[in-house]
Amino acid sequence: MKWENLLADGRFGESQKAATSDKARSEFEIDYDRVIFSAPFRNLQDKTQVFPLPDQAFVHTRLTHSLEVSSVGRSLGKGAGEILLDKFPILQNQGVTASAIGSIVAAAALAHDIGNPPFGHSGEEAISDFFRLHPDGRLWEKHVRMDQWADLVNFEGNAQGFRMLVSKQFGLKLTYATLAAFTKYPRPSLIVQRDIARKSQKKYGFFINQLTDFEQMCGVLGIEKTSSDSWMRHPLAFLVEAADDICYSIIDLEDGCTLGLVSFEETMELLKPILKGKFDPEKLKNRTNTQNLGAFRAMAIGQLIRETVGLFGQYEENMRKGNFDKALTDIIPSAQALADISTVSIQKIYRSKVVLEKEAAGFQVLEGLLSIFSRALYHHFYQSELFSGQDKSVLRLLPEDFPMKGWGAEVNPYPMLRALVDHISGMTDKYALNLYRKVNGISFPGI
Asked: Which domains occur in the chain, in start order?
């Protein structure tokens, strides 16, 4: 792969010759603005990052997390851009700047969680479990292809995000470079054999009905295949991944400390190996724990950014050749410190009572919503003798643009099921909970 192709500013959904009339912003800055003003991004303000929103102490939502990941991503991208411009003078001749590369990573990082459903990662598992285990979900297996069923029983927020970013419904029309940097897992859900040595194959990055879109993107950017059904990562995807890893490692720990799940003293001990000689106990004096926590969190993130940029410069050629496929944060000098933070976070944060309660509620809510809508659709199109008044009322709650025509025994319902999952996964936590209560008669509008 060549950088002059990988950084092409062609835009998805437009001819490559289509030029923007806005000369004040680069194409990649326009990507950033389109994401931040989009409805799916705004919805992240009421989607759980780790903790349900408490009454007092501030903790992060998906939206604040995404903004912070984007900020770190911009720094990583600009640092990497300076290395690339020094190494490849042809990029300067094409008008590429370090800021432009920073904008690609920032925009991709801003959108990195845009496909996540309500209730965090447990929401992904709840959607998967519905089709895999629930009687109302399993009814659909015989009506779809094997590769389509693999999508449904393994719901993936990254693939949902790619679907949303290329969907005509939202009209974002991002650049190919930003879309590729967004795609950390460049493969479909069903492949012949997963290469466990490649981090990019740990999950999947697009649903089977977006295969043509993905292939179009790879063709424009010159992204090559690693096998018959998998592709190389765009090198900037490693930076998007690193930005996310850095933020959730450090900031989830900060939230855990703020909520009293991890002591301030233990938090400082976990950050010290990252800060190394910059950790000065004297600086802890005459400041509150909150002030110290914020200061040392910022210093730790800065150090991790520097280490990651240095490693990117070391391995970028191997990335382009497909010989490097690891998480950068797994091999930077502070990798062991991050692993220690992860161990504590799993024990004291991710398995804390408040988080587990949220996850359990999320399973109940999403399974319940999927069941009642799915059952109504199945009765309407496949078991009309069971189609009830309740089913009719439920279907009227679907969005106005929901595809309600053309389905039946001889028609593959996968596109309709994708639309249903779009609807459910796009809900905010509160909306999903309130709708679940209403359709189950637990609460009533206006009462």
From this structure: 3-235 (1.10.3210.10), 237-353 (1.10.3410.10), 355-439 (no CATH)
